[in-house]
Amino acid sequence: MRVLLLVLPLLLSNAGSDPATTDPTVPDTIRSMLEAAMDAGNEGDVAVIVKYARTADPASADLVVKIATDWRNDRMAKAQRRIREADFFDLVKGRAEVGGYVTTGNTRNIGVTAAVQLRREALEWRHTLRINADYQESLGLVARERYLVAYEPNWKFDDRAYMYGAAQYESDRFSGFNDRFSLSSGAGYSAIKQPGLKLDLELGPAYRNTSFIDGSTESNIAARGSLDFDWKVNRGITLQQNASAYLQDANSTVSSKSALLARLIGPLSAQLSYTLQYESMPPIGRQTTDTTTRAALVVDF
């Protein structure tokens, strides 16, 4: 709407021009708005201005498109050059979250949740490392203890398609297993990839090895699928949805995390999240579904 209000005057000022007699140069009104959008680095605004400039002054439409295209190509070339020349840790970005609670008086409970994610994005390779930990005590007894470490390298075919590898370790005796290792490889695709909005999908075969609390072990071939959705609603609010599933003849697993982040100040955000863990064939006496609602502070670095 903001861009449309800016473009409206140029539509009115050029409505009466005759394309057959207009000199093929960009009118000052269009050029100034186009340059302002390019200086701000906003590709969305540039695209809108180019779109309406075609109607406002058809004679200069090709030149406006060329200016915008050259700007995008130059911007992309500079970004790729910065990535090629960057040191290893220059491309590493991270996120850490910590939440918890303590109650005293008639009952004494303590709960702690922590997570760290590191991500390195280069031209051909993307690496992601995640570490999660949940711990809860109630009346002096441990009521929840879950740990997860996951590493995923991606090799990018092009701007959207990639091959992935995934290695994951879990420990959750309250779900019936001491250790569970998962390995997977397959194809991934960025179905949505635009500023402030992304959706990545992955699918491939997997191998899982589980050591149960009763001392038995189990190995299975499975199918793995995952979804990673991120929507920056505005400068202060972000919605995230991450989900993965391991489907097999034995115990299948589905995990999901829905999160709402609100920017507080600088790199600090408040997060409210809801996680779901589903085990299709848990040990006797265990529930199939475990859900947790968390409030945490998040720091981007």
Notes on the protein architecture:
With 301 residues, this protein is α+β, with helices and mostly antiparallel strands. The chain folds into 2 domains: 2-85, no CATH class; 89-300, Porin (Beta Barrel). Helix content is 21%, strand content 55%. Strands 1-2-3-4-5-6-7-8-9-10-11-12 form a 12-stranded antiparallel barrel. α3 packs antiparallel against α4 (61-85). The two termini are 33 Å apart. Residues 3-23 have low confidence and may be disordered.
Give the tags.
301 residues, alpha+beta, Porin, 4 helices, 12 strands, 21% helix, disordered N terminus
Order of helices and strands: HHHHEEEEEEEEEEEE
| Largest sheet strand order | 1-2-3-4-5-6-7-8-9-10-11-12
* Rg result: 26 Å
Summarize the biggest pleated sheet: 12 strands, antiparallel, barrel
CATH topology of the largest domain: Porin
Mean pLDDT: 85
**What would you call the structural class?**
alpha+beta
Count of DSSP-assigned helices = 4
- The multimeric state of the shown protein is single chain
Number of domains: 2
Strands, count: 12
The rounded distance between the terminal residues' Cα atoms is 33 Å
Shape category: elongated
Helix content: 10-25%
In CATH, the homologous superfamily of the largest domain goes by the name monomeric porin ompg
Low confidence ranges: 3-23
Proportion in β-strands: over 45%
CATH class of the largest domain: Mainly Beta
Return the CATH architecture of the largest domain: Beta Barrel
